[in-house]
Amino acid sequence: MAATPSLLVISAHAGDFVWRAGGAIAAAVLRGERATVVCLSFGERGESASQWLAGKSLDEIKALRRAEAEAAAAALGADIEFLDLGDYPLRESPEAVARLVDVYRRTQPTVVLTHTLTDPYNGDHPAAARMALQARVLAQAIGVAGADGSFPTTDEIIGAPPVFFFEPHQGEQCDFRPNVLLDITDAFPHKRAAMECLPAQKHMWSYYTDLAVRRGVQVRRNAGPNLGLPHETMGEAYVRYYPQVTGVLE
Amino acid sequence: MAATPSLLVISAHAGDFVWRAGGAIAAAVLRGERATVVCLSFGERGESASQWLAGKSLDEIKALRRAEAEAAAAALGADIEFLDLGDYPLRESPEAVARLVDVYRRTQPTVVLTHTLTDPYNGDHPAAARMALQARVLAQAIGVAGADGSFPTTDEIIGAPPVFFFEPHQGEQCDFRPNVLLDITDAFPHKRAAMECLPAQKHMWSYYTDLAVRRGVQVRRNAGPNLGLPHETMGEAYVRYYPQVTGVLE
Amino acid sequence: MAATPSLLVISAHAGDFVWRAGGAIAAAVLRGERATVVCLSFGERGESASQWLAGKSLDEIKALRRAEAEAAAAALGADIEFLDLGDYPLRESPEAVARLVDVYRRTQPTVVLTHTLTDPYNGDHPAAARMALQARVLAQAIGVAGADGSFPTTDEIIGAPPVFFFEPHQGEQCDFRPNVLLDITDAFPHKRAAMECLPAQKHMWSYYTDLAVRRGVQVRRNAGPNLGLPHETMGEAYVRYYPQVTGVLE
Amino acid sequence: MAATPSLLVISAHAGDFVWRAGGAIAAAVLRGERATVVCLSFGERGESASQWLAGKSLDEIKALRRAEAEAAAAALGADIEFLDLGDYPLRESPEAVARLVDVYRRTQPTVVLTHTLTDPYNGDHPAAARMALQARVLAQAIGVAGADGSFPTTDEIIGAPPVFFFEPHQGEQCDFRPNVLLDITDAFPHKRAAMECLPAQKHMWSYYTDLAVRRGVQVRRNAGPNLGLPHETMGEAYVRYYPQVTGVLE
Amino acid sequence: MAATPSLLVISAHAGDFVWRAGGAIAAAVLRGERATVVCLSFGERGESASQWLAGKSLDEIKALRRAEAEAAAAALGADIEFLDLGDYPLRESPEAVARLVDVYRRTQPTVVLTHTLTDPYNGDHPAAARMALQARVLAQAIGVAGADGSFPTTDEIIGAPPVFFFEPHQGEQCDFRPNVLLDITDAFPHKRAAMECLPAQKHMWSYYTDLAVRRGVQVRRNAGPNLGLPHETMGEAYVRYYPQVTGVLE
Amino acid sequence: MAATPSLLVISAHAGDFVWRAGGAIAAAVLRGERATVVCLSFGERGESASQWLAGKSLDEIKALRRAEAEAAAAALGADIEFLDLGDYPLRESPEAVARLVDVYRRTQPTVVLTHTLTDPYNGDHPAAARMALQARVLAQAIGVAGADGSFPTTDEIIGAPPVFFFEPHQGEQCDFRPNVLLDITDAFPHKRAAMECLPAQKHMWSYYTDLAVRRGVQVRRNAGPNLGLPHETMGEAYVRYYPQVTGVLE
């Protein structure tokens, strides 16, 4: 459709967007689209056990994780910003949502990626998803002011971009039943490069490479065996939240 | 992808494909694709009350409904065939499924449309869907023979075409939660012409025109208010059964 | 509404209607309505362990269970008939459904009671429900003949009576989430009398009396503490399958 | 039952009760019952785009929407009050719930209508429903004080009135599967008059008239074709949240 | 596995743990394990109607319920503590969760029991469950400080203990579909003794004794008729929230 | 409990039990229990594409797959038998169920493993599960005769063994949400040896080895990080169908 493609990724912690949506981000950038990542926290408490064990301070840990996330975003070709809301728990508030409303209006996303609404293993993920979804609706209303109270400005409201939930750990326990399988074969080298910007989680590099292979097998199986997709097809899985709008069934 | 587009519509009764999928069929034909409709029955017992009241015989009713369905298919630009399995109830059997396997292999569909798997108001619809889905899987296996026992022929097996369920009456009671909204604006005049080939159900013409308007409103709402879709957008709703395979999130 | 009240109860085995719907049946009869019970089998194989252990023959067991069910129906004030389709497993067939179509047209039910569609402990129950629901739809169509092929007769087709599923054993495993709580206080003595017609299952008398007490507590709780329902309120629980049609929200 | 009928409608924004429950409200008033509408906000930010575009101030918009809502309530014969909690987002708080507890105890509702608990298109609706449901439970407890701290007064606690969710936009995406179809034929002229008190949403008049027609068709279909309901039956759809308490299955 | 068994029960109100988990608690104590009960509130507003009617003050009611709960815990052999967060409504907050994190780290539970996540009759129960689950995840992270800000201490983080939801009132309305049936035959006398420490709810003694009998019947039925479980088997039902980890399918 | 452990695995095709339940089978055998595999078909049509392409006849393919399955069963230490019901489609019939009733009574299983009830990619799997579940219930009834009509024999009826569904391909599309994670570390070498008896599917060897590693990670995560399970823990995932009966929550 007419809007300029713009991808917005709302991530609870600093690393989530790399593992879970790195392929979609790199693919969008490869197509010449803009991609923006918003990290609601750095994951400084819940996902930095080794740094705490090494005696790092809170500020050191946040700085470290920020630097890693910036490097990974650069490897994917995406812009990145940090709201620094704190994690474990990530606290929901109208003020945080208002800041996200500003992000939506500034970036005018045509596609939004975020976490699933259910995750028994990490409450920050659903909290991020709830705020991302609430802000998306508020940003559509001309009567809703910006976070600084500026009010109202017609040219800033957004349309109704589709939202996709990316894949959680232990997805079966998170009601994650993917209805979109994304072919990320061409984008995968960039995703791999971004993963390698996160050296503390080196064991995840092969985990997420293997996952991309398995999702690639499903891309091929659901497309049919005789359609000529190569054996090395790589994939990512998503749940589309709103109905798809299309001119063609395919 | 590489396969030549071919649309296969499996309909329990002679009229279902017109009301529920006429837009998708006409749109495919307008794009130059092939469309094939298979009617498992004529709807001679369950959907022909006025003819029974008028004293028509079973054979007369079947002939009448066949002629109407052929005219409607012609208006849409689709091929049509009839398996004449009987309705109310539509009886499932391995033999009927085998005939559908032959249809799949002959038409090599890239998209399949059929009924929902749940319908408390009409058991023939889920029965049709079960047979359509079973035949789709069997048709992929080289070891499965044709209905006449011919066996096995490599070049006939099919890929894994996506399946879409079309909209039932009283969809809320049928677990129909659409995840695809199809823009049928350009195709709608053809759908209307096909509906007018079914004069006995004249009250349905306006019902399904109104439904297309309402689904068109949802097309626009889910695409966002500022994307320039015209007010007269017409739509049809579908449930995609298998995950979507795509190279782009959009 | 205008139709004469007529209750139809479709029961997989000879005793089910007593334990599960005896209160509803007796209440209808007390209001002067007609009630008809159809037992699809006698429960001769799956629910007659003590008779088999006592060395009874199949015919003896069937006769015994028929006699007990007739006595229980009499205690409730209901008509009863037996299709003798066999149990464990109860086999579904178009012929059995056609016989049920005849029952529907003959009794013109305004309310239908049957089993739940899910029961991991007894496959005969869902089979009975599937046949009861299919026959209800077929009986509405003028084009569907009777079981003897007689065809078609305008004055026999039925309306669309509401269907209620009665309470299974271990309801939580059967997706039984009741949305109707029936006050059977006045009818309970008749239900108790009917239960006492089934001496082989004497331990069930107190089980189902206790259940009626507990369901009665829920009747009172869901109606509110201050509405004056007596402490000895007795109840039965049901799931309404189709939406309720009403002129008043209450 | 013994309580005097009293209908309480809890609406997130000023107009919701008209479109979604106007028939039920007018029908209750026609039966001589009391009806009270509580608007939690005016919908001043999220549902007043045209006023913002026309350069109106926040206070002007709130005054305008209050006046329209009052006129609509008068056309239905209902009392109306406004909590002015703000919208987009409607903020949940124990203080707002306490004010609703007071409303419950003052109006002693025998029936409650509110929004669905799920709505991906508008977070204010589920927020209203959550507060309505929480207040309903608190209002039953003698130990819970009023919003002003007054404490405790035996004669004020309420029973357990049934709750019905009214129909959202795009109900399929809101898990709206109606289990009650309300015949509003006689009340519809009053609903239409109330709708016409909201001139800014003139395009909704025909939308909701058409919806009433379609729900009326479902009223007739689920009641059966031969029960003599007129062709012009009008309807509204609801989801009953708690089990129905009844003395008769019908 | 290697950890010392420690049972943690998180209860919204002072009495919940007795009725719903008394058997599991006593059974753990009989096996020589430690059991700790945390009452988030005393149930002073929502579950003390008779004391309010008798003119007791808030402090008197809280003291009374504390004494009863302590006696019941002693009868079961469990430790007990009270967070006094207030009830009706039980307010969720990060501070309350932080206090629970401390409890988790102090008691190092190997099994956790709490309420279901859904309860249309009492919002305090899901609120307690949400806090119990959130604290369980936070307590696993070395970067999460204690409630007093003490930070970080390696030896305090916990593992991932299984969580079981205990049985609510009107469980069918609470999505309570038990997947664990616990044999509490030997523990039942202790549960009964604990119930008798709550004289104000004397009518519950027989209710929960009967429930234990019925759950005991289900223990026997699901174990099979020929396994030699005695007729007087008593049971409690639970929902396991996370997947079971086991070395043996049984 | 008192019964001698006996594991029964009901598999639609000849290879399913190896990939999906090989670990559970080998673990049972290592504990000294008996394990019996029943293959309902050889998978001769649906899962033997390479043999068909190589020009093998139906009988040759069946013989080949039988030999492979026998070798794999031997590697696991299990007995194996074949009902040869045909595949693609696997046809359900009362006669086939009666043969399974005989198997149940002969093997007296204390644990049953079979396919999931939903599988959009392979209809034979749910068909096998339906027959396995139906036979399990029938085998408990003394009134149900054997497949040869022998009737009735008290000592043959079975108890109510728990049933576990094993993991399908693309489990997310099959409603497979595992609630049991089985530690198969010690049994894995035997599973690997059994897999290597199926040389035509060599690419599956590494796929299922990797899956066992991933399920092993989940075993460790759900047991908690500090419980000392080794890094090389291997796992299989299951869905328990009936509630677990236990004396200890753990």
Automatic annotation (TrEMBL), chains A, B, C, D, E, F:
Signal peptide: none annotated. Gene3D superfamilies: LmbE-like. It comes from the Bacteria. Keywords: Zinc. The keyword Zinc applies. InterPro entries: GlcNAc_PI_deacetylase-related, LmbE-like_dom_sf. SUPFAM superfamilies: LmbE-like. This is PIG-L family deacetylase. It comes from Microbacterium kribbense. The lineage of its organism: Bacteria, Bacillati, Actinomycetota, Actinomycetes, Micrococcales.
